[in-house]
Amino acid sequence: MKSSKMLKLIIIIISVIGISISGCKKRIPDTPAPDTSSLQQLSIDDAQIQASDNQVTNDANGVLSSTSSKLMDTTISNCSITIDSLNHGDTIVYTLVYNGVNSGHNFTRKGTVIIEKLKSVHWQSVGASVTFQYLN
Known about the structure:
- By secondary structure, this protein is α+β, with helices and mostly antiparallel strands.
- It has a domain at about 55-135.
- The protein contains two helices and four strands.
- The chain has helices spanning about 1-20, 35-65, and strands at about 80-90, 90-100, 110-120, 130-135.
């Protein structure tokens, strides 16, 4: 009697362990990889905007660093650029007009940048400041 009860108990325990191990296997569905194309495009756009802003800043620095007798060499900029200056009271205003394709022919820049600085302050001086206005 005792041996049959013990045998039944062992069979029940083995059955429960077997069912719990093999019976509860669930198939994990394959999750598709997230679409990162828009994030990649956003990163590319951000890099292009930063590069374009750096080019305009370099052009402005070239204009501000030049002497009054010689304006910036327009070959520094990759796009066709026209530079004009105007004395307005104690301020000098430089106007950079962009209209052309860059040297790599991968974008066209059109628009105007207005740069203002005080006449009495040299651009290379510590604490010198200028105002940039991007138009168009």
